[in-house]
């Protein structure tokens, strides 16, 4: 549930309040089978979340300000019951795991953002954010591998993040931009007990220094758009999820560097017919990353690609925008998207038990068609995804591979009151 309120204090000052509340309960059964063992999991999860943000906006002749405060709170629980056939011999250990865990999180922030017009062609922008986060965790249970007495831990983090950027109008319809920013991803406490130390291990926040720049160009007569962008991200203590047969643990790699190029082009060719082209080149690699899994076994992932970071992506689409057809307006899009080879595990290899941790490059064909009538309140649309019914892995974590959606069709009718 969400509630947004806003108002004006004066002609130059306005305010906004954004409130969010979520209560969620989920139950699921999962059968995890591999060549090594079988786990039958039953999960009962609850989550209560509340968020509140206040904003104050000030508009001046050459300078615009936005400042405010933010709060987020969460209370989550999970009961995880597992029956395990560890040797694949039909002998099932009941309640091998019967874990009750609880995680509480509270986040506080103060922020300010400013845009200042240095001239008619140049704009300077900047922002600052102060973060404070506190996380508590507790794990206990009655299963074979569970601690009989609950194990607890708390972690707290402070961070100062910000950005500075410059936009410059090179000419009619063309703008160059560049900027530097610092980002922050909170640390926390592992949701599983360390088998060796019998503790809940904390992990550190992840930070990144991001450098970005590019060009945005509007084609003559607003016939289309051409955008070029380059970026370089320098991560410190980047977080990585390391999994084994028992559980997953979040670890911090020392460094990671990501850089790449992106291109976007869209244009009308003839009448309502247009074309969209997008593409990207990416290099995303760990620096020094020597770590261990939840069982304490060492791993060296230095120099490996980050998970889910394909080196090449692109999409080509033909579009139809409000073409008159028999007194109605037709729109459509036929596209081909390609995603290059990528890894789902930090190992970058098909290790034993991880035989589906790599997805080779593949492409998908998608189609959408829409029909409406002038300013009529109704519209009809037909969408088809993965027309060629391509088989591929969309996500994989140790011994578990989730296939991408097969060919699907959707017929939709909308009516606006």
Q: Assign an overall shape.
A: globular
- Tell me the series of helices and strands, N- to C-terminal: EEEEEEEEEEEEEEEEEEEEEEEEEEE
Q: Beta-sheet strand percentage?
A: over 45%
Major sheet characteristics: 17 strands, antiparallel
Sheet/helix structural class: mainly beta
Helical content (DSSP H or I, runs of 4+) = under 10%
Low-confidence stretches: none
Total number of helices:
0
How many β-strand runs? Answer: 27
Q: In angstroms, what separates the terminal alpha carbons?
A: 22 Å
Mean pLDDT: 89
- What is the radius of gyration? 26 Å
How does this structure look, described?
The chain has 417 residues and is an all-beta fold. The chain has strands spanning 2-8, 13-33, 38-59, 63-85, 93-117, 122-141, 151-171, 174-185, 188-189, 202-203, 206-218, 224-236, 239-243, 248-252, 255-270, 273-286, 290-292, 298-300, 312-325, 328-339, 342-343, 358-359, 362-372, 378-385, 393-397, 400-403, 408-415. The protein has a 17-stranded antiparallel sheet, with no helix packed on it. Strands 9-10 form a two-stranded antiparallel sheet. Strands 13-14 form a two-stranded antiparallel sheet. A hairpin with a 2-residue loop joins strand 15 (255-270) and strand 16 (273-286). The protein starts with a strand and ends with a strand. The mean pLDDT is 89.
